[in-house]
Hints:
Number of helices: 8
CATH topology: TIM Barrel
Number of strands: 10
Mean pLDDT: 95
Amino acid sequence: MHTIDLNCDMGEGLTNDAQLMPFISSANIACGYHAGDETIMQETILLARQYNVAIGAHPGFADKNNFGRTEIQLPLNEIYQLIQQQVLLLTNIAHSLGCKLNHVKPHGALYNMSAKDSLLANTIAKAVYDINPSLILFGLSGSRSITEAKKAGLTTASEVFADRTYTDSGNLTPRTQMNALIENEEEALQQILQMTSQKTVTAVSGNQVPINAETICLHGDGAHAMIFAKKIYETLQQKNIQIKPLTH
């Protein structure tokens, strides 16, 4: 049976985490820098444990005003510290609750920058490896994030998106563009089925782009998050695709 991981960014102060949790297999929990705080982290970890959902750190820029979605240029040593501080914080909170971290997925602008920048991707990978080499690094399919994490000795998860469009280069269409988001349920479903069965995605240009779908991201802050999550979960099950977290 084919398997796939469904992940969702959580602990960002929204009200639908509890409703989304039954439909996912991995939770990326904000570490207080771009969103959330220690209380929300604890609550989200306990919620994930209740539904046997894998727990991951979701580190981002320390920029709550822009939700971590604005690029910030920092020296690589500061990027290293930024990742370490957040991953260690969530690791310690998880341990205090009898849980452990499974993965790390950078957030927002940091995620998109590292997808294209080898030095940045390498720094993030080293920061994660130095905390725990058994952590899985989630990164954009086909990106520098994946190649550099593999070089650093980490297990990787190539991520694809249900609710975002793609460029010919395999990158996500920037949110500043009109066609960046997929807001139609059927379009999102078709994109996911194409990614999982054909290992391609149709870019906004109409071209077919190769893709490796190991984990599918569902954005919890999307206007249609609950509808998308439930429909994708049910459709994958109907296609005999098992939804389960990734392991080292």
